[in-house]
Structures are given as structure tokens and as C-alpha cells.
Amino acid sequence: MQFSSALLENAVNEFARLPGIGKKTALRLVLHLLKMDTPMVEGFGESLIRMRQDIKFCHRCYNVADGDVCSICANSLRKQELICVVESIRDVIAIESTQQYSGTYHVLGGIISPLDGVGPDQLNIESLVNRVQKEETRELIFALNPTIQGDTTIYYIQKRLQGSGVKITTIARGIAFGGELEYADEMTLARSITNRLPVESYMAGK
Amino acid sequence: MQFSSALLENAVNEFARLPGIGKKTALRLVLHLLKMDTPMVEGFGESLIRMRQDIKFCHRCYNVADGDVCSICANSLRKQELICVVESIRDVIAIESTQQYSGTYHVLGGIISPLDGVGPDQLNIESLVNRVQKEETRELIFALNPTIQGDTTIYYIQKRLQGSGVKITTIARGIAFGGELEYADEMTLARSITNRLPVESYMAGK
Fold first, then answer.
1. In terms of CA atoms, which chain A residue is nearest residue B24?
2. A87 near A145, Cβ under 8 Å?
């Protein structure tokens, strides 16, 4: 792409570094910014810079936080003895958006994946084990993606916590609400039959 | 979406204002920025702010410029007596990227569209007419999108320049290179037969 302005070219190149944003999309976005009022663009740029400079990670659960402890850990109304173990901050946001979970989280920062060179030491697992022992956690809910890596991570942490008396569960897998049976993959369908529920608990969940 | 950090929420909301960027994409991009080094993110934010604050529009052709005159108008090697009339800056970048055009441009800033309330007065048409008369332009090449609005704009400007002696042309329409005949729309195919070229000039263009 040929630009007649170095300022424009620079902004487009910076945008095109973001994942999933090609040069053409970057140009479209930058030309949109060019049409916006200057204070709006200043607000946009500054909000990104401030976010990167000032954001912290919760000392307890490794979720993003504006201070030392995130707003979920700091909320005394949430069940502190319940920990939902997730891979990333994105999963926390997804679960929080359901407004159905009232416990706390623990963000691993990834999952065990030897092929990618990610072992237990690179993840926030040690702190989770310490936390479970120190805080007398009642239940650990795994909400990891159902991959081999996810299962390995569950297996590893479960082993580490053997004898601690904590209850370990994982979120339900099955046919999605609104999903049609004939389009479900065989694995999901087979597992949803094996792990079938009494109708009462199904109705209660609605 | 529920966020545990106001800084994160703010950055996501700012991103989601851009066209074609929804909340989920915005979150993905912001979490990517969060993983990047702070100086990189500062560079990104500042390049956008600086672009918006400092970018100018060329006094002559209304293209984006770092100074009063854009680098194309300032380039004495370009044929100043040739003006390519385009709708927007994006079209200038597209044509420049072909590296096949060595004249100058005139950015209209839109096209005549009475239904959208855009008349000739809102566009850089008066300045184009003045420029053609003052600069003794030899040829005006219209590179507008082939819509009714585009054709209306060509017709209007052509009328305004009647008697000026300037040659007025428009970029060729036809089957795209690599395009297959059977998938071409009827209008394009019909016009490409009517406006057929001698084989010599076709081969020369290759």
C-alpha cells in the first residue's frame, strides 16, 4: 500500500499488528478515526495506554484488577470457599456475564501443553494449591476447554490436591440449549447420554 | 459483558465504537494489547492520537498530507496536467498501490447523492473547476464507483467544464483479469462487448 502521509501510514501499520486485522481493515479503521473529532480519538488512544500502564493482576486469583485485589475477590458477598478454575481472563468475563456464578476464580494463565512448552511451572498452579490449603476451599470447579490439554491440566491439579478433602467438579458438557441433536458431534452426544440427568434437576436448572 | 476492571471495560468500550468491531472482537484486541509490552502499546495509542492531531489535507487536491501540500502534488516528477478524480482518500491509496499512474489526484470527499442530502456544494467540486481552469489541465480521469451517484457526479462536473477544452475520460469497465465470463454480471458483460478494444491495445496494456 502506498500512502501520501507518513502519519497515516504509521497509524495503519500499528493497527495492522493486531491479530485478525489486515492492512485493508486497518486502513478502514484509521480513516474512520480521521473522521472522528480529535478529543474522541485522544480519549480512545489514552484509554488504551492507561489500560496497559495501570492495570494490575489480582494477587489472589490473577484476574485483571484496578488495584491489588480484583473486585470479585474483594466482594464479601461472593462465596470465597468456591473457586472456579479457568484458563484466561476471557473465561472469567464469559462466566461473569451469565450472572449465575457467585464464587471466586483462579486464572491459570494457560493450560498444560508439553508440545507448546507449557508445563505446570509456567502456570498459576502452585498458588492455586497453596490457596486451596490456606483458605480451606470447599469446592474447585474446573471450567477449562474440553481438549486433551484441558483434561491433562485437570488431572494434574487433581493429583496435587489429593488428600486435601476439597470437592473437585467440572462444568457440565452436553448438547447446548438451542442445539439440535442431529448436528451435535458424536462424542458430545455419547457423553451426554452417559452423563444423563434426572428430569427434576434439569427442570430446576431452567 | 461483566468486567472486574474499569480500565479494561473502558478500553473495550472505546474499541467497540469502531465500525465492524463488536464487543467480543474488542475484548480480544484489548487482551492482546494487555499481553504486549507497555512501550509498544504506548506507541500504538500515541500514533493514533498524533495522526488525528497533526494530519492535514492538501490545499490543492484534498488528499491527506503531513504538510500543506501532499507528497503527490509536491512531486515534480508527476504529471501535473493530469488529474484523477476520486471519491475518497482510500481510492487514492488503491490507485497509488498499482504504481501505474503518474498524474495527480483530486479527492471529492464523496459523490453527489440527493437522497443522502449530498449536493455539489458539499463536495470539492468548485475547487476542481477552478483548478482545471487555472492550471491548464490536459485531462481529467474519473475513477468513481459505477453507481447512479457516480455517474451523476461525472455528468455534473462534465457540464461545469463544458468549453474548457479539457479531455474527460473514465477508467475502463469490463471483465476483471482473472474473472470468468460465466460469473460476470450481464451489465458488465454487455458493456464490455460494446466497448471492445482492438487486440493491439489489449496486448499493449499487459
1. A90
2. yes
